[in-house]
Design brief:
Helices cover about 40% and strands about 20% of the residues. With about 210 residues, the protein is of the alpha/beta class.
């Protein structure tokens, strides 16, 4: 088993943080379709700072008899049946996303992954519903625990809306790219890394005083 230079297992109690963003056709995880999913992996570099290491995303075909809310589709700009989406079914999408996450869990000596998201209950509920529909037995994720960058953003930058937290953290925000699963996941991952690394710097400063 290949181990990352500085395994992450001791930093988050054996959990590997994986940033997930999901775009959907509504708010009900049992009735509305999962249309797009992105996963961003973060790991320690040689200096012990958390950074983005891998990115995965795919468009997803709505499951049979899924309800498609027009207001949700207008908001995220997704045409579920557009021929150029190159979408795959839920089962294939989960296998594609989960496989590299399981490898990352192993090389970081972790026990499982934990979902990191901005208001992650939404993403976790849709992910769990897809896992149940496809009867996927190999999910690397904790079924109910998560890390919330909205809460962390409120603590670190006094903002909770993702765009506002990102700007407060000194990151550039592109409204044209927002609500793409990969873009939102990358921005959330960058923010998560920035907050974790900032905490590390604060601890070092306090230790020196």
């Amino acid at each position: 088993m290949e181990t990352h230079a500085i395994p992450i297992d001791r930093r988050f109690r054996g959990y590997l943080p994986v940033i997930i963003d999901i775009e959907t056709s509504g708010f009900n995880p049992k009735k509305n379709a999962l249309l797009e999913i992105a996963a961003v992996l973060v790991e320690f570099n040689a200096d012990g700072n958390l950074e983005i290491t891998e990115r995965y995303s795919t468009h997803v075909i709505p499951f049979k008899n899924a309800e498609l809310d027009e207001s949700a589709l207008k908001f995220n700009g997704i045409d579920p049946y557009h021929p150029f989406r190159m979408a795959i079914d839920e089962d294939e999408a989960l296998h594609m996303i989960f496989k590299p996450i399981r490898h990352a869990v192993k090389r970081n000596l972790c026990t499982r992954a934990i979902l990191v998201g901005h208001n992650p209950a939404f993403d976790l509920n849709f992910l769990n519903a897809a896992i149940q529909r496809t009867q996927n037995k190999r999910s690397p994720f904790h079924p109910f625990s998560s890390f919330d960058t909205a809460t962390l953003g409120g603590l670190a930058y006094q903002e909770t809306v993702l765009a506002k937290v990102a700007k407060a953290a000194g990151l550039e925000w592109d409204n044209e790219k927002a609500h793409s699963a990969l873009y939102d996941a990358e921005m959330t991952a960058t923010l998560f890394c920035k907050i974790v690394n900032r905490w590390k710097q604060m601890e070092a400063f306090i230790g020196e005083t």
